[in-house]
Design brief:
The chain is mainly β. The protein has strands at residues 11-14, 17-27, 37-44, 50-56, 62-63, 67-76, 80-85, 91-95, 114-118, 121-126, 130-138, 151-156, 161-165, 173-177, 183-186. It contains no helices and 15 strands. The protein is flat, with a radius of gyration of 20 Å. Belongs to the elongation factor P family.
């Protein structure tokens, strides 16, 4: 695939290793005839190291031989998280360190989680773009402050703290963007 066609979340081969693209920035040429540069921030899916890649839009990247399997959260202990494949019921284990960024969004029964399988081993986890979580602790809104759109901190069922509009109350379900950690809407 051409570098200009690569999207966030794609898994490609770079220097013989599979890497997942996490961020893309485009640098337009400043001179005539210069090529547009694509800068990719990626993570090696096996070693978890960050990798920076800079390419021209016409350079070719090879897609990694990778599969994504629908999984269900089983449980976690102090060191690992355990997942089960929804099709063949195979269990996968990932260290909590590897899924540190996704853990605040994972709850029992979360639909849409996908395990990243490379050489029959689970090397990563994809969570949906947005999840619904319950607010467990939130200060009440102050009456009369509705003229301005102020926000307040709210603690969710997973322990994640986000900013929500002042009219949101404790016990409500809210949608949260898993890429940014921001409040999206009531659920």
């Amino acid at each position: 695939m051409l570098a200009k066609e690569v999207k966030t979340g794609a898994v490609v081969v770079h220097e013989g290793n599979p890497v997942m693209i996490q961020d893309i920035s485009v640098q337009s040429p400043s001179a005539r005839g210069a090529a547009t540069l694509y800068k990719f921030r990626a993570r090696n899916v096996v070693t978890r190291n960050k990798v920076d890649i800079t390419m021209k839009g016409t350079d070719v990247l090879q897609e990694a031989d990778f599969s994504r399997r629908d999984v269900q959260y089983l449980y976690s202990d102090p060191e690992n998280i355990y997942l089960m494949d929804k099709e063949d019921f195979q269990q996968y284990e990932l260290s909590l360190e590897d899924v540190e960024e996704q853990m605040p969004y994972i709850t029992e029964g979360l639909e849409g989680m996908r395990a990243l399988i490379y050489n029959d081993a689970c090397v990563g986890l994809d969570v949906p773009a947005s999840v619904e979580l319950v607010i467990t602790q939130c200060d009440p809104g102050v009456k009369g402050n509705s003229a301005t759109s102020r926000s307040k901190p709210a603690t969710l069922e997973t322990g994640l703290v986000i900013q929500v509009p002042e009219h949101i109350k404790e016990g409500e379900r809210v949608k949260v963007d898993t890429r940014t950690g921001h409040f999206l809407s009531r659920a």
